[in-house]
Amino acid sequence: MCGFVGTTNTQNVELMLSKQEFRGPDGSRFWSNKEFAIGHCLLDINGKKQFQPIETPNGNIIAFNGEMYDSTIQNDTMWLANMYETYGRKVLEWSDWHGSIIHYNPKSGDITLVRDHFGAKPLWYYKKGKDIEVSTSLRSFLTKESDRRNWEMHMKTKQWFGRMTQWKYIHKVAPGEVVTLNTRKGTIRTENLWKYYKIESHDLHLPEFKDKLIESINKVAKNIQKTGLFLSGGFDSTMAFSAVKDSDLDLHIYSCKYHEQRGRKWDHEGFRREFGKAKHTCLEFGYDVNEVMTYPAKRYMNHMHWIEKTHFLWADKNRTSPRYEMCKQASADGCKVILTGDSADELVTGYKHHEKRFSDEYNLETMNYVKYKHRRWFPTKSFGDDLINNTLFHDLLTTSEQNILTTDQTCGMFGMESRPVFLTQSFVKYIMSIKGTDKLKDNPDYHPGEWKWLLREGMKDYIPEHVRLRSQKIGWSSPWDNNNKEVQTREQKEQLLYLEEMCK
Question: In 235-309, at which residue ranges do the beta strands (DSSP E only) sit?
Answer without folding.
Answer: 250-258, 289-294
